[in-house]
Amino acid sequence: MTNKNAKVSLIALVGHCGFDGPHMQSVLSRMFPTLKVERVNDEPTAERIAADPSAVMLVNRGLIGEIGYQNDFGSDEGMALIRHLRDKDAKARIALISDYADAQSEAAIVGAKGFGKSIVDDREALAHAMQPLLA
Asked: What is the structure's pLDDT at 68?
């Protein structure tokens, strides 16, 4: 179960492609300069971070990962990874990153409703979407 009392120190971008991952990392690093923002493209690292109550995990709907790197996830579906992490009693706050309403509805069922990449360059909308994850 997520520990909402832990102060957030890390934002993990999980399974984002070689374009979106660095872009999101840059935007979030500028918005939240006191937080570490890192990209994650393998399941063992995702599992380690999920155990950290001070982490926020932004999981891509499709686990694409860096261009030129082989992903090390048990599935290419972000929801499968989220369910797996929840089954392992994840302590981190986890949100699905997808612009698709049906994907967000599915994520909401497991407490991982997030936001779409379409708002990443809208500072106000992104801050609003991140607020519940950072509270």
From this structure: 53
CA 23 to CA 87: how far, in whole Å?
Answer: 30
Domains of the chain by range and CATH?
10-134 (3.40.50.2300)
Question: Which candidate, 83, 7, 4, places its Cα nearest to that of 46?
Answer: 83
Decide if pLDDT at 7 tops 80. yes
107 has pLDDT over 70: yes
Amino acid present at 5: N
| CA end-to-end span of the chain | 16
User: Whole-angstrom Cα distance, residue 120 to residue 44?
Assistant: 27
Summarised one tens digit per residue, pLDDT across range 30-88 is 999 999 999 999 999 999 999 999 999 999 999 986 655 556 787 889 999 999 999 99
Do the beta carbons of residue 49 and residue 8 sit within 8 Å?
no
Query: Which residues, in sequence order, are bridge partners of residue 62?
Result: 77
